[in-house]
Fold this protein.
Amino acid sequence: MGSVTHSLLKFFRGGTEARDAAQPQPKIRRRSSGLGEFTRTVRMQDGLCVLDLGSTSPANISYLTDLGHKLYTEDLLTAAYDPSLRTKVDGESVLDGGRFMRENLAYEGAMFDAVLCWDVPDYLPESLVKPVIDRIAGLTKPGGLLLGFFHTRDSGPDAPHYRYHLASDDMLDLQVAPHGPNSGPVRLQRVFNNRHIENLFRDYGSIKFFLARDHIREVLVVR
């Protein structure tokens, strides 16, 4: 099954795009220096495999496939906060991380040339952060790119969780992410400092930081 077909199947199975149709959220236009460098690189090659870890976005599908690339999507935060992942252990609700990792990012070998990680690590449950980043590293080809956004200490726990839509080479449309009927707002779980981010991507070859004005630290890493 092709990658874009895979993305559209999620769309028709009641994913976040379907919920947006009922309650559309306004979009905020934002310039991104990290995205500008990311897109300059992917424009230089044809037929790349790109992994988008955010909610399925028709804008992202159109933008990247129009460049001649294959796009795969994994809405990791929706999957991570699925109530069915919770299990009872000694009377306490515990996340079944093993099941999450079996059911998500289930690709074979280093197949991706570029990854749009967005701000997923900031919102993931703690027990999933390292396994997810390690899995992504294993799925990324040598020389592959990853673009990530990290909140600074000024963001606060109520920082809105956005979806990111590609508007142009260095412009994004931000849209407050919708939530399913069985889950509340996704809250900021942690704030990484530069050293934490460097440790998180220690298996990568290089890392470059871009400090934005809206309490976001953009990071571009090369595998």
About this structure: The chain has one domain: 3-222. Residues 157 and 188 are 5 Å apart (CA to CA). The radius of gyration is 17 Å. The first strand starts at residue 27 and ends at 31.
